[in-house]
C-alpha cells in the first residue's frame, strides 16, 4: 500500500527541523546548495502534493495506524517551522519560503474549480494567529525587501489572513507607499484578498482607480494596477463594477502599455462571467477594426483566443465577426504569428458555431482557400495547415445542408482541400531524403495531416479515389527525389562507409514513413467500408498502390510485406469477385485462386526479411499478418523465428503464438482446402525454405479436397490453442505481462470447443435422410432426435451467452486497449451473442412440441425468460448499429408476456460497440433474425406436420449460421502482442472495530465493518488524470470457507479467466454504478431469494481517488448468518473516467480472510 502525505507528515516535519538547524552557507541568491534552502524547497513540493490530495478519512487513519488528527498536527508544525525560518532566516531563506508558497498558490489557483481547496485553507490551518504574527514581525522590523516578501506571504495565505483587520490595514496602507517594490507586492496581496472578500475588493477598487489615474503614479505601478483588475471578482456585482470601471479607463487611455495590460485583465475578468463575455468580444473587435498599432492588435488577438478557448458557446458569434477575421488575414503587413492567432480564433469559432451561422458565401470560402494555398506555396506549414483544418470543418459541419442546397456539391472545395493537405505533406516528407531534418517531428506533423484526410474521407466517401491517387503520387515523388539525391551524390563523391550509414538510416526513415502511410490507407478503407463505398474502382486504386510500393526497390521488404497485406482485406477481395452482397456464398474456386494469388507475394516478402536476418522486422510483419488474418504468412514467420531465439521467455512467447497461428491456419484450410494443396504445390515447385510449413500444409490439406470434417479439424485447432495457453502458463516470469494473451486464448479455445460441441449435436440429427419415403416417419425421426438434443442445445445457449459476457469483460478490463483491438473483441462477443440467440431462441417458439419439452428439461431455473434475455443481449449490441435487425428482434417479444417484462436496454460502454466495418457478422445477424421471425410465423399453425417442418428448418437454420460464421476470417487484436504488466488494482483492508493487527475477525451473528484502500497498479499517468470515480464490490459465500486462513493470503498474478462468477459480479457492479437497479441494490445486503442456501452476501463501496489512483473508504458486510469458521472475501473493482465510460479493473491480489469466532463478549 503506497504511503500518502498524511503518513509521511511526521517524517517530513523532522527532516525540515534538522535542515533548519543546519549551518551550511548559501553562496548566491540562486544557489540552493545550502541544506536548509534545499529542504525548504523540497518541503514546498511536498506541500503542493499534499494540497492535491483529499482530506484524510477514518479509513485511512486506521489502515495506516495513525491517530486521527495526527496529520493536521504535523502539517501545522511544518507551517510554523517555515514561518520561523522566514522570521529568523537570512534573505535567501526568506526568498525560499516565499517561493514555495507562491508556487503552492499558483497551483491551487489552477485547480480551484476542481473543489480541492488545498492544505492552506482556513479550516485546515489551526494556528493561524501564530503564523501571521511571525510574518508581521518581519514586516514591522525588516527592510524594504523583507516587507515586500511579507506582503507576498500574506497574499498566499489570503484564505485565513483576510479575516485579520491588522493584515488588511497593512496591505491597504502599503498601496500608498513611496517605494515601488512595496506597492507592487501590496497590489499582489490586495488581488489575493479581493478574490475572497467583497468589502475588501470595494475598497481596493476605489484606491486602484485613484492610483492608475494619478499623474504622480509611476508607469510600473500603473501596469501592476491594471493587472489587478483581473482579480476583483469575488461576487458578480463587484466583478461587473470592476469591469465597467476598467472599460472606461481603457477607452479614455492613450497610453499603449497601460491599454494593453488593461485589455488582458478585462478579458480575464469577462471570461469568468457570461454576461460580460459578449461585451468584451465586441470591445476587442472594435480595437481590431481601428487603426491601432501591431502590438495592440496582437494583444487583441491573444485576448480573443483566450476567451474563445474558454468556450465561444457563451454567445452567438455573427457572420460579421468571421468577416472581420478574414479581413485581418488579408492585411499585407500582418506578421505571421498574428495571422496564426487569427486563424486559431477563426477555427475555434467555426468549430463551435458553424451549424448555427448563416450559410457562408462560396466566395468567402474560396477566399479562405486561396489564402491557404498561398501559405502552402510560401512554405508556412503551420499556418497553411490551420487553413486546411478550418476548411475541413466547414466541409464536415455544413456538408449535408450545403450539399442539399447546391452550394458545395458543384464546387471543387473538397478536392482543393485534399490537394492543399497533400501538398503540405509533400513539403514535409520530400526533404527527408537529405537526412537534414528531425524526422520524428516531421512524422508527427504528417500524422496530423493524414488524420485530417481520414476525417474528410469519412464525411465525403467520394473523395476516396482522389485521396488514394494523391497518396500514390506522393510515394512516387518520394522515390523520384531519392533517386535524384543518390544520383547526385554518386556523381560527386565515391561511396564510403559514411554514405552506407546514411543510406541505412534513410532506409529506416522511409520504412517509418511508409508505415504511417499504410495505417492511413487502412483507416481510409475502414471509413469507406463503413460508408458502403468500397467499390471496385477503390480496389483498383489500392491494388495499383500496392503494386507501386512492392515493385519499388527503394523500400525494404518489411514495407513490401505490410503493403501486400492490404490485399487480404475481406472487402477488397469481395470487390474483386463482384459478390460483395453474398460474402458467405462465394465460389470456392474463385476464392481459392485469389487466396493463393494474394498469399504467395506476402510469403515471398516475409522470406526475404528472414533471409536478411531482420528478425525484429520479421516479427512485426508476423504481427501485421495475424491482425489481418493472413495465417499462412503468420505461421511461416513465427515458425521460423522460434528457432532463432535464445531467451526462455521469448521462446515460450513465440512458441505460443506459433501454435495459435498453426491452429487458425487449420481452420482456414478447412474452409478452403484447395488452397492448401495449391500452396503446397507452389512451395515445393519454388523450393520455398519452409519444409516444416510445407509438410504441415500438405498434411492439413490431405483428405479435405471433398467435404471437410469440420468437427475433427476444429477439435484439432482447439487442442492447438489450448496448448498455446499452456505454453504461456509455463513462462513463470512476468505472469501479468501475458495476462491478456492467456485470457484471450482461453476464450478463443472455449469458443472453438463450443462450436465443436454444437456441431456434434447437430450431426446426430438426420437432416439428409431420403424424403421420398414416408414423410411422417422422416419428420418423426427428426423430431425425436431433436427432442433428445434439446437439453444439450439449451445448455450451449447459456454457454454462448456467458462467453459473450466474458468477451465484453475482456474488452472493458484493459483501459489502454486501442480501438481496433476493442472492435475485434466486440465482434467476437457479438458472434457469441448471435450463437446464444440462435441456439436458444428457436426452441422457444410456441405451438411446437419442443417448446413444452424444453421447459421441463432441467433448465427451468432461467426464470422462464431465457429467450428475452438472449434477444435483449443481441439487441443491446445492435441498438445503434442496425435498426432493421432491431425491428425484427422487437417482433419476437410478442411470443410471451414474460419477454416484455424481462426486457430492458442495457447501457453499454461506448468503446465496446461493434464498428460498422464488421458487416459480415451484421449480415449474418440479419439472416439469423429474419430466419427466427420466419420460424415464428410458420409455427402459428397448429399442425404436427408443421411442427416437424419448423423443427427441421430451425436446426438447419442454426447449422447454416454456424457455417457462415466459420467463413469469417479470424483476426487477432493488436493488443494481443503488447506484452506488458496489466492495469489493475489491489485492495488492502483492516477491521474498523479493533486495533489488532493479527487478522480480521467478527463475532457470530454480527456484521463485519471494514476499512479499505483501493490502489491502482500499473496505471499510466495520462489515464490517472482521466479517472473520476472508483467503485468496488466485496462478496462472500458460506462455500468460501477456508480451513487455514494464512495459506492463500498471496495471489500469484491475475487469473481472471479462472473465476467462474466474475461476469456476474461485474454485471452487478455495472448495474450499481449506472443506477439501473438503484431501488433493488443497497450498499450492503444479502441476496434476497427463496433459495439462498449459499449465503451469498455483498457490499458496494465508493472511493474518491487521489492523483496516484488511491482511494479510502469504509463498508459493512452482513455476514451475520455465517457459522464459525474462516471465509475468503472476494472482490472486484471498476473505475469511471471523465467521459463517463465504465472500465473494469482486474484484481491483482486476493481479498481478505475473515474469521468468525466465538467469544464471551456481546455484539455492539
UniProtKB/TrEMBL annotation:
<feature type="domain" description="Integrator complex subunit 7-like C-terminal">
    <location>
        <begin position="984"/>
        <end position="1157"/>
    </location>
</feature>
<dbReference type="InterPro" id="IPR016024">
    <property type="entry name" value="ARM-type_fold"/>
</dbReference>
<dbReference type="GO" id="GO:0032039">
    <property type="term" value="C:integrator complex"/>
</dbReference>
<protein>
    <recommendedName>
        <fullName>Integrator complex subunit 7</fullName>
    </recommendedName>
</protein>
<dbReference type="InterPro" id="IPR056516">
    <property type="entry name" value="INTS7_N"/>
</dbReference>
<dbReference type="Pfam" id="PF22966">
    <property type="entry name" value="INTS7_C_plants"/>
</dbReference>
<dbReference type="InterPro" id="IPR033060">
    <property type="entry name" value="INTS7"/>
</dbReference>
<comment type="similarity">
    <text>Belongs to the Integrator subunit 7 family.</text>
</comment>
<dbReference type="GO" id="GO:0034472">
    <property type="term" value="P:snRNA 3'-end processing"/>
</dbReference>
<dbReference type="InterPro" id="IPR055195">
    <property type="entry name" value="INTS7_C_plant"/>
</dbReference>
<feature type="domain" description="Integrator complex subunit 7 N-terminal">
    <location>
        <begin position="74"/>
        <end position="489"/>
    </location>
</feature>
<dbReference type="Pfam" id="PF24436">
    <property type="entry name" value="INTS7_N"/>
</dbReference>
Amino acid at each position: 500500500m503506497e504511503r500518502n502525505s498524511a503518513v509521511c507528515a511526521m517524517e517530513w516535519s523532522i527532516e525540515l527541523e534538522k535542515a533548519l538547524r543546519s549551518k551550511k552557507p548559501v553562496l548566491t541568491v540562486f544557489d540552493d546548495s545550502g541544506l536548509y534552502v534545499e529542504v525548504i524547497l523540497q518541503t514546498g513540493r511536498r506541500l503542493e502534493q499534499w494540497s492535491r490530495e483529499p482530506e484524510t478519512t477514518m479509513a485511512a487513519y486506521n489502515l495506516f495506524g495513525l491517530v486521527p488528527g495526527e496529520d493536521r498536527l504535523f502539517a501545522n508544525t511544518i507551517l510554523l517551522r517555515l514561518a520561523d525560518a522566514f522570521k529568523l532566516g537570512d534573505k535567501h531563506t526568506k526568498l525560499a519560503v516565499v517561493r514555495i508558497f507562491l508556487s503552492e498558490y499558483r497551483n491551487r489557483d489552477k485547480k480551484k474549480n476542481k473543489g480541492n481547496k488545498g492544505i492552506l485553507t482556513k479550516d485546515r490551518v489551526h494556528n493561524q494567529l501564530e503564523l501571521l504574527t511571525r510574518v508581521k514581525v518581519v514586516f514591522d522590523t525588516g527592510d524594504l525587501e523583507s516587507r515586500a516578501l511579507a506582503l507576498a506571504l500574506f497574499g498566499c495565505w489570503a484564505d485565513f489572513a483576510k479575516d485579520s483587520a491588522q493584515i488588511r490595514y497593512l496591505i491597504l496602507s502599503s498601496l500608498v507607499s513611496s517605494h515601488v517594490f512595496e506597492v507592487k507586492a501590496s497590489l499582489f496581496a490586495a488581488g489575493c484578498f479581493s478574490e475572497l472578500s467583497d468589502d475588501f475588493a470595494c475598497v481596493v477598487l476605489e484606491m486602484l482607480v485613484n492610483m492608475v489615474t494619478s499623474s504622480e503614479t509611476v508607469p510600473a505601478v500603473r501596469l501592476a494596477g491594471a493587472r489587478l483588475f483581473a482579480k476583483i471578482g469575488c461576487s458578480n456585482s463587484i466583478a461587473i463594477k470592476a469591469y465597467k470601471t476598467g472599460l472606461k479607463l481603457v477607452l479614455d487611455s492613450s497610453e499603449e502599455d497601460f491599454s494593453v495590460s488593461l485589455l488582458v485583465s478585462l478579458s480575464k475578468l469577462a471570461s469568468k462571467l457570461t454576461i460580460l463575455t459578449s461585451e468584451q468580444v465586441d470591445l476587442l473587435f472594435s480595437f481590431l477594426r481601428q487603426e491601432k498599432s501591431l502590438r495592440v492588435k496582437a494583444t487583441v488577438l491573444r485576448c480573443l483566443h483566450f476567451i474563445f478557448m474558454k468556450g465561444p458557446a457563451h454567445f452567438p458569434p455573427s457572420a460579421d465577426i468571421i468577416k472581420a477575421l478574414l479581413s485581418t488575414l488579408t492585411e499585407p503587413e500582418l506578421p505571421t504569428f498574428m495571422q496564426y492567432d487569427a486563424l486559431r480564433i477563426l477555427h475555434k469559432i467555426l468549430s463551435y458555431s458553424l451549424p448555427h451561422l448563416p450559410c457562408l458565401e462560396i466566395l468567402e470560402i474560396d477566399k479562405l482557400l486561396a489564402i491557404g494555398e498561398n501559405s502552402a506555396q510560401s512554405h508556412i506549414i503551420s499556418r497553411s495547415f490551420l487553413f486546411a483544418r478550418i476548411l475541413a470543418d466547414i466541409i464536415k459541419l455544413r456538408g449535408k445542408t450545403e450539399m442539399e442546397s447546391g452550394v458545395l456539391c458543384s464546387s471543387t472545395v473538397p478536392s482543393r482541400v485534399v490537394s492543399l493537405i497533400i501538398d503540405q505533406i509533400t513539403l514535409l516528407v520530400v526533404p527527408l531524403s537529405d537526412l537534414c531534418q528531425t524526422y520524428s517531428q516531421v512524422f508527427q506533423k504528417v500524422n496530423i495531416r493524414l488524420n485530417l484526410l481520414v476525417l474528410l474521407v469519412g464525411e465525403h466517401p467520394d473523395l476516396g479515389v482522389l485521396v488514394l491517387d494523391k497518396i500514390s503520387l506522393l510515394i512516387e515523388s518520394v522515390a523520384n527525389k531519392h533517386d535524384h539525391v543518390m544520383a547526385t551524390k554518386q556523381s560527386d563523391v565515391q561511396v564510403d562507409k559514411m554514405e552506407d550509414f546514411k543510406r541505412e538510416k534513410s532506409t529506416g526513415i522511409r520504412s517509418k514513413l511508409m508505415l504511417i502511410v499504410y495505417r492511413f490507407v487502412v483507416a481510409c478503407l475502414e471509413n469507406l467500408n463503413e460508408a458502403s463505398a468500397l467499390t471496385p474502382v477503390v480496389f483498383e486504386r489500392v491494388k495499383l498502390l500496392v503494386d507501386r510500393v512492392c515493385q519499388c526497390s527503394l523500400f525494404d521488404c518489411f514495407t513490401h510485406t505490410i503493403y501486400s497485406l492490404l490485399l487480404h482485406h475481406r472487402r477488397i477481395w469481395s470487390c474483386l469477385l463482384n459478390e460483395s452482397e453474398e460474402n458467405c456464398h462465394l465460389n470456392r474456386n474463385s476464392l481459392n485462386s485469389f487466396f493463393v494469388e494474394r498469399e504467395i507475394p506476402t510469403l515471398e516478402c516475409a522470406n526475404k526479411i528472414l533471409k536478411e536476418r531482420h528478425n525484429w522486422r520479421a516479427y512485426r510483419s508476423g504481427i501485421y499478418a495475424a491482425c489481418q488474418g493472413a495465417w499462412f504468412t503468420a505461421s511461416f514467420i513465427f515458425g521460423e523465428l522460434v528457432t532463432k531465439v535464445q531467451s526462455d521467455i521469448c521462446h515460450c512467447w513465440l512458441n505460443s503464438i506459433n501454435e495459435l497461428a498453426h491452429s487458425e491456419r487449420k481452420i482456414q484450410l478447412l474452409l478452403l482446402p484447395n488452397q492448401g494443396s495449391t500452396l503446397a504445390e507452389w512451395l515445393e515447385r519454388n523450393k520455398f525454405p519452409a519444409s516444416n510449413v510445407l509438410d504441415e500444409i500438405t498434411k492439413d490439406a490431405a483428405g479435405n479436397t471433398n467435404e471437410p470434417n469440420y468437427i475433427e479439424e476444429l477439435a484439432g485447432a482447439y487442442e492447438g490453442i489450448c496448448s498455446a495457453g499452456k505454453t504461456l502458463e509455463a513462462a513463470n516470469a512476468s505472469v501479468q505481462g501475458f495476462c491478456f494473451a492467456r485470457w484471450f486464448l482461453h476464450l478463443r479455445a472455449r469458443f472453438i470447443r463450443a462450436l465443436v460441441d454444437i456441431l456434434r449435436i447437430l450431426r446426430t440429427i438426420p437432416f439428409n435422410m431420403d424424403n421420398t419415403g414416408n414423410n411422417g416417419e422422416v419428420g418423426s425421426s427428426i423430431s425425436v432426435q431433436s427432442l433428445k438434443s434439446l437439453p444439450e442445445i439449451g445448455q450451449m445457449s447459456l454457454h454462448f451467452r456467458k462467453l459473450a459476457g466474458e468477451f465484453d469483460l475482456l474488452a472493458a478490463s484493459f483501459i489502454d486497449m486501442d480501438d481496433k483491438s476493442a472492435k475485434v473483441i466486440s465482434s467476437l462477443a457479438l458472434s457469441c451473442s448471435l450463437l446464444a440467440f440462435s441456439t436458444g431462441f428457436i426452441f422457444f417458439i410456441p405451438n411446437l412440441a419442443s417448446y413444452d419439452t424444453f421447459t421441463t428439461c432441467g433448465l427451468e431455473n432461467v426464470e422462464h425468460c431465457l429467450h428475452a434475455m438472449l434477444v435483449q443481449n443481441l439487441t443491446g449490441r445492435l441498438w445503434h448499429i442496425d435498426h432493421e435487425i432491431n425491428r425484427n428482434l422487437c417482433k419476437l417479444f410478442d411470443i410471451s408476456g414474460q419477454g416484455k417484462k424481462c426486457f430492458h436496454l442495457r447501457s453499454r460502454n461506448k468503446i465496446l460497440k461493434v464498428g460498422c466495418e464488421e458487416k459480415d457478422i451484421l449480415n449474418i445477424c440479419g439472416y439469423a433474425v429474419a430466419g427466427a421471425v420466419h420460424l415464428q410465423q410458420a409455427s402459428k399453425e397448429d399442425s404436427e406436420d408443421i411442427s416437424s417442418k419448423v423443427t427441421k428448418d430451425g436446426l438447419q437454420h442454426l447449422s447454416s449460421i454456424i457455417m457462415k460464421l466459420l467463413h469469417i476470417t479470424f483476426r487477432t487484436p493488436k493488443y494481443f502482442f503488447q506484452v506488458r504488466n496489466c492495469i489493475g488494482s489491489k485492495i488492502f483492508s483492516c477491521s474498523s472495530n479493533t486495533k489488532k493487527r493479527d487478522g480480521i475477525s467478527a463475532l457470530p451473528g454480527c456484521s463485519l465493518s471494514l476499512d479499505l484502500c483501493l490502489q491502482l497498479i500499473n496505471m499510466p499517468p495520462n489515464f490517472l488524470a482521466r479517472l473520476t470515480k472508483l467503485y468496488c464490490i466485496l462478496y462472500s459465500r458460506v462455500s468460501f470457507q477456508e480451513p487455514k486462513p494464512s495459506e492463500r493470503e498471496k495471489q500469484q498474478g491475475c487469473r481472471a479467466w479462472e473465476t467462474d462468477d466474475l461476469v456476474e459480479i461485474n454485471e452487478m457492479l455495472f448495474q450499481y454504478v449506472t443506477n439501473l437497479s438503484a431501488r433493488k441494490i443497497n450498499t450492503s445486503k444479502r441476496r434476497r431469494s427463496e433459495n439462498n442456501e449459499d449465503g451469498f452476501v455483498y457490499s458496494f463501496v465508493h472511493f474518491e481517488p487521489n492523483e496516484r489512483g488511491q482511494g479510502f473508504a469504509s463498508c459493512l458486510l452482513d455476514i451475520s448468518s455465517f457459522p464459525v469458521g474462516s471465509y475468503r472475501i472476494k472482490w472486484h473493482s471498476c473505475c469511471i473516467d471523465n467521459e463517463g465510460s465504465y472500465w473494469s479493473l482486474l484484481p491483482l491480489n486476493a481479498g481478505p480472510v475473515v474469521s468468525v469466532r466465538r467469544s464471551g463478549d456481546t455484539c455492539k
